[in-house]
Amino acid sequence: MPTSTDLLQRGIEAARAKRTDEARALLMQCVQLDEHNEQAWLWLSGVVESLDDRRVCLDNVLALNPRNQRAQAGLRWLDQHAPLPPPAPVEHCPHCDAPLPASGQTCPVCKQPVLIVCPHCGEFTEIRKPQCVHCGHFSGDFKQRTKFYITLANDYVTEGKLSPAQWALDQAVASTPHESQDWAGIAGVRVKLDRPGDAIAAYQQALKYAPDDVQLHVSLHDVYRKGKLEDEAQATRDQMLRQFHTDHDQLIAGGQALLDRKLPPAEALRFYQRAVELQPKNVATRLQIGALCFDSGDAAAARDHFAEAVKLTDAKSAQGQQARQALAHTKTARRAAEGAGGGGGNDRVRQTAGPLLISIMAALANARLSPVNISPISWAALIGSGAGAYLWQAADEPGRSRSTRSLIGLGLWLISFGLIVIKV
Q: Residues near 173 by Cβ (< 8 Å), separated by ≥ 6?
């Protein structure tokens, strides 16, 4: 195995013969075997490829022998001829693009912050970076100024840092919001900061950009109700009804939002009624308003809407079955209510009694007001008259044969009444 002395000698010979690659390889082996070999480092500085590597070799020579004049001369030459390092990049203000000093939290020109306190860890981080350099918390894209500051304000509120939240909110407003969702976001933060008056103003600004946004109307309505401003809340509901007067889907969304907030059913009912006027054949709307009427105590209106839904659907369809079940439920509930009332009255019996009474009076008139003089055929006709009257009045029961029952009942009653009148 060659010694460091052998490698040094062979490396010097290769260097003098201009065999640079060979010399570099031999001298590298030499310094690996003997890192304190001053001559090996000196000769290696002449065959390395980069100026930086040459400087390293000469520094190593001077570390071993500070008086080595050839190494000193080599470093002086490098200082004179080596390219200067590129200047450090100049940071610019993310607000006004002015050059920034090496330190400082605000821009000296526009006075805007270039550093913010991370809501999560409390350390300073650059405002232009979407994530905190300390904890990685994501604050959003600074280029979207308004949305960035709204997100930052919400993060501060979440962490209980209300003063920084107010500062971020002020920055959001100062960034000149021009979208409805920006103003809605500002309003949401103001609600969290318990500033209802400012929140109302922000929602009103949002509605200027998006007057057809149901959620914005409802959010404004919620702030009024939370502040016990019932007149303003009622005015907002009235405005919603006017605004969506010709839009079926928006009316349904508004009515459902009011139901979700546990308002009296009558408030939501106004929206559903208008929706039915716009689309009277919309089965889903009929079922919704029927259920709402039933829950609010108006069983008669509920039956009307469910009956209409029955007409509009096939009995085998899902909506058809739902409509028929709902209609049957309202009628069952009505009978139960009548039974609970103690009178024992029944609408179906009362409705049937009217036509039957007419037939009885006709039969008595023919028999000179004596029941014993009523003929057997007239008695049979009276029974047919009662049956026909019942089928006629039962035509609103759910089922496919409603019109058939009505026609059969009416026909049977007319034939029976005719037999009585002609004195059979």
A: 186
